[in-house]
């Protein structure tokens, strides 16, 4: 309770901190942080120098091991437009000058393809599908994005680092360079550094990043391929963390792209999501892409749209139910006929994603709340902490589950939700909210129906 004197004191003090004064304080703090970062970058300026020649020999190099007795494909060049041929010539010249490629006498060769870049330019890539088909796969794991995001609940400051042409900072094993040969009108060339398009390139690069940053991972650094995120609870702590990462990158002679690095932010986009303040939002660019997505004209385009939506499905209550008409179009032997129902579903999903909730990041040290419900044909659930949603989950009932009585469907919904969020709930205190009164007597009921369907 606030007494009369306390109320008066609050009334007297409040006008002193005006919006203008508060803005100046924030601006001053922002300037001080900018100065701190500028000083740190100046102390480690070598990190931002252009890579000259080949990167150093490292413990991690890219290997291309082929299936035994596999015959190497030798493919012809694709036809390119005049503009594309000019771009090939320009990029090949740059790559030769930088030492990334060299002329080749390989008996093998792959054609060139172009991939559009975000900035409107074109990335020259090699069509290595035939080579990848006969390459022994490297199963080195990439981290789960949700596991990485779970580290960020208490972070107040973020720095995102991007390596300069990260793949090109990894050498290809000398015995394997000839396998990367590609054809141009200027001749045959092979890579000395790792290019895009090789099936094992992500695994090699992830191994390098884990080896380099291993001492700091999950303490204040997470990394997904060449996207390094440093996160801290205080500004002083953050400066120390960034410095430690800079020192490790210098030690391993890795270079950063200054145009793509972001420093000391209180929120930023990472791996398709906006993180900050203990919350998670969908990247506005992803929202815009889905909002502007053209109406699908065939099954492939429907699958592509569903895939884009599924990346953010945990933001949408009852997503699986809402998307059912579109999923039905992708079934085998299903004739593609776009009806008004599909059009309504398509527009509804676009709208739901544009209006998606802000989710709270999970605090793994606090209790969770779980709310689950069921209808005649589907179930839905939400995982929460302190009343704030962390994620949504839904699925359609299949087979015999469709015929369960209401009580068993509600229980099945709860069971499926607990299974789905097992990594959060195992060993944790959890409060279950239900609007189905009979579930309150679950622990005292003498006989449960359909138990065998809920085991495991």
From TrEMBL:
Entry keyword annotation includes Transferase: yes
The keyword Hydrolase belongs to this UniProt entry's keyword annotation: yes
Molecular function terms, GO-annotated: endonuclease activity; peptidase activity; RNA-directed DNA polymerase activity
Pfam family, one: RVT_1
Domain Reverse transcriptase, first and last residues per copy: 96-275
Keywords: Endonuclease, Hydrolase, Nuclease, Nucleotidyltransferase, Protease, RNA-directed DNA polymerase, Transferase
GO biological process, one term: proteolysis
Lineage: superkingdom: Eukaryota
Official protein name in the record: Reverse transcriptase domain-containing protein
């Amino acid at each position: 309770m606030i007494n009369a004197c306390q109320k008066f004191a609050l009334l007297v003090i409040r006008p002193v901190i005006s919006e203008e004064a508060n803005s100046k304080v924030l601006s001053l703090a922002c300037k001080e942080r900018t100065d701190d970062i500028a000083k740190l970058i100046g102390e480690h300026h070598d990190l931002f120098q252009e890579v000259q020649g080949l990167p150093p020999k490292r413990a991690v190099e890219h290997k291309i091991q082929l299936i035994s007795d596999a015959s190497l494909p030798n493919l012809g060049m694709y036809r390119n437009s005049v503009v594309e041929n000019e771009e090939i010539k320009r990029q090949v010249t740059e790559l030769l000058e930088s030492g990334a490629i060299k002329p080749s006498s390989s008996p093998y060769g792959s054609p060139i393809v172009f991939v559009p870049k975000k900035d409107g330019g074109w990335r020259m890539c090699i069509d290595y599908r035939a080579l990848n088909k006969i390459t022994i796969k490297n199963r080195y794991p990439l981290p789960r994005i949700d596991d990485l995001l779970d580290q960020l609940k208490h972070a107040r400051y973020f720095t995102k680092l991007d390596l300069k042409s990260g793949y090109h900072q990894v050498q290809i094993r000398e015995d394997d360079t000839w396998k990367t040969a590609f054809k141009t009108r200027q001749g045959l060339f092979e890579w000395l550094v790792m290019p895009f398009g090789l099936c094992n390139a992500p695994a090699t690069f992830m191994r390098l990043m884990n080896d380099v940053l291993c001492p700091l991972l999950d303490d204040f650094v997470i990394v997904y391929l060449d996207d390094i995120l440093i996160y801290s609870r205080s500004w002083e702590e953050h400066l120390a963390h960034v410095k430690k990462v800079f020192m490790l990158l210098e030690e391993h002679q890795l270079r950063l792209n200054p145009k793509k690095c972001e420093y000391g932010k209180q929120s930023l986009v990472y791996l398709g999501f906006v993180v900050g303040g203990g919350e998670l939002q969908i990247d506005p660019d992803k929202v815009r892409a889905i909002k502007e997505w053209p109406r699908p004209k065939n099954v492939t385009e429907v699958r592509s749209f569903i895939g884009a939506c599924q990346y953010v499905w945990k933001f949408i209550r009852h997503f699986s139910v809402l998307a059912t008409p579109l999923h039905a179009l992708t079934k085998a032997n299903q004739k593609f006929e776009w009806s008004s129902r599909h059009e309504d579903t398509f527009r509804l999903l676009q709208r739901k994603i544009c209006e998606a909730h802000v989710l709270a990041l999970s605090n793994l040290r606090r209790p969770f709340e779980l709310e689950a419900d069921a209808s005649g044909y589907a179930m839905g659930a939400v995982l929460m902490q302190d009343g704030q949603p962390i994620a949504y989950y839904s699925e359609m009932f299949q087979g015999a589950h469709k015929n369960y009585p209401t009580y068993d469907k509600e229980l099945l919904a709860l069971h499926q939700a607990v299974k789905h969020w097992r990594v959060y709930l195992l060993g944790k205190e959890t409060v279950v909210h239900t609007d189905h009164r009979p579930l309150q007597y679950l622990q005292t009921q003498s006989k449960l129906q359909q138990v065998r369907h809920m085991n495991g």
